[in-house]
Specification:
By secondary structure, this protein is mostly helical. The protein is built from 16 helices and two strands. The protein has a two-stranded antiparallel sheet. Helix 4 packs antiparallel against helix 5, helix 7 packs antiparallel against helix 15 and helix 14 packs antiparallel against helix 15. The chain starts with a helix and ends in an 8-residue tail after the last helix.
């Protein structure tokens, strides 16, 4: 049945959606909204599914987001003559290098688990397409205002799930529509950071009430996970955003919103203080010890194999007969090891130390490019984008030292959307500068022509 639904969607719904999107602007905008919105849900099927495999990918996953991407891809191709797409967007070469070393690592994959490595390769390919499509769609439409309204709608949707889980179902650590509460935290840090950046820095007048409500609900969702690292990283993200916002000048809105947010945050912290303190005090020591032991195993793997033990193979090689878990007590032939709780050591263990460095280069290439956008767009009405991303990306980069969440599809999609926004803002600035040069040159040519007509300049004859 799942294959029937998939192929009906692929061969019927996608062509119809493509035709409608190419001829109707409203449908096109709806598709792009869903392209972002549905990254919150796991509406997917797995080909060659391995649901009980302990890895970062468990099959050749294809989701509704990927199918919507085909619709937008057709729109981009249809307008290629007028708006030629960038074949190699900013950062793509670094991603290709990362991807290549992930492929090479498969030579060290365990016998019988080579296909599991290709599960992750397929995911990386899908994520690149998500980045490429968003980048080439956004650079010509600059629909940042549409995107922030989409983000507000997503926050309301996620908050509904969180409030229902917390107050109706009685879950202590809510996870919303995500597979784990840590996935929710990292996803919401980005959304809330962009909302806060928008509230503080949007130059045009906005209706503050619903934006503050959205930020408050997003903050409540983060608190409801009781993720210790998530709470700390979210506070640091907000501090970065507020600091960068005031470098552009002081305004009554900035002062008022900052005081209001601090007041709401204080009330929320007091309301949830007992639960937050309980979470910090009762956190099991076994959890921290397990993290350390898995990290030690990851270092052993990275030191043992130059190209790593094989992409998506950590969950295999943490178990006997491999000796990477020899320092962990109680490991038997029947044991099912976990995954190292940091994405950085995950890359090192599975694909080599050099590839972990390349991953760092990828992350900070876009981070510093975003800071460059902050400088270049400081007088733009879209300055809130680089400010929000500066805080949000810093938060999830820090938390990724303790989580491998950025390899999960929901958060991986969102990371690639952030990269697409950064690249598109850089492209928009370059296009504006080129337009200014053309206008200036045309103005000078026109001025000289008028002077010649008045006879102020003698034109030599040869």
């Amino acid at each position: 049945m799942k294959y029937l639904v998939f192929f009906l969607t692929l061969f019927v719904a996608v062509p119809i959606g493509s035709q409608l999107a190419r001829t109707n602007k409203s449908v096109e905008k709806l598709v792009h909204f869903l392209y972002i919105f549905l990254t919150t849900e796991e509406i997917t099927i797995n080909f060659v599914s391995r649901e009980f495999f302990k890895g970062t990918s468990r099959g050749f996953e294809v989701g509704i987001v990927d199918l919507l991407g085909l619709v937008l891809y057709s729109v981009i191709l249809m307008r290629a003559s007028k708006y030629p797409p960038r074949i190699v967007p900013p950062g793509a070469p670094i991603y290709f290098i990362l991807f290549t070393f992930c492929l090479i690592s498969i030579t060290n994959s365990a016998t019988g688990y080579i296909m599991h490595s290709f599960f992750e390769i397929w995911k990386m390919f899908r994520m690149y397409l998500y980045f490429w499509i968003n980048y080439n769609y956004i650079i010509y439409y600059h629909n940042y205002d549409t995107i922030i309204y989409s983000i507000r709608a997503i926050i309301f949707y996620i908050s509904y799930h969180v409030l229902r889980q917390k107050y109706v179902l009685g879950l202590w650590q809510a996870k919303g529509p995500f597979p784990h509460q840590n996935s929710l935290v990292m996803y919401m840090i980005i959304l809330n950071s962009l909302i806060l950046g928008y509230i503080l820095n949007k130059k045009k007048k906005i209706k503050l009430f619903w934006w503050v409500v959205a930020f408050s609900l997003g903050s409540l969702s983060i608190v409801s996970t009781f993720s210790r690292a998530g709470l700390v990283c979210f506070v640091l993200s907000c501090m970065v955003i507020i600091m960068l916002s005031f470098t552009g000048g002081v305004s009554p809105r900035k002062i008022g919103v900052t005081i209001l947010i601090m007041f709401i945050g204080l009330l929320g912290a007091l309301r949830a203080m007992d639960s937050i303190v309980k979470r910090f005090e009762t956190a099991p020591e076994n959890s921290a010890n397990t993290r350390k032991m898995l990290a030690t195993a990851a270092i052993k793997m990275a030191n043992d194999k130059t190209f790593g033990v094989g992409l998506n193979n950590f969950g295999v090689k943490i178990n006997p007969p491999y000796n990477y878990s020899s320092h962990i007590e109680g490991v038997t032939e029947e044991s099912i090891g976990g995954l190292v709780e940091t994405i950085y050591l995950s890359y090192a263990a599975e694909t080599g130390w050099h590839n972990m460095v390349i991953y760092f280069v990828l992350l900070f290439y876009f981070y510093f490019k975003n800071l460059n956008n902050f400088v270049k767009h400081r007088k733009s009405d879209y300055i809130w984008v680089p400010i929000g991303l500066a805080g949000g990306l810093m938060g999830i980069y820090l938390e990724s030292a303790l989580e491998w969440v950025l390899k999960q599809s929901n958060n991986f999609y969102q990371l690639m959307l952030c990269f697409a926004l950064i690249g598109s803002m850089e492209r928009m600035y370059k296009r504006k500068q080129a337009t200014k040069k053309i206008l200036w040159r045309n103005k000078m040519i026109e001025a000289k022509r008028m002077e010649r007509e008045r006879g102020n300049i003698t034109i030599p004859h040869y």
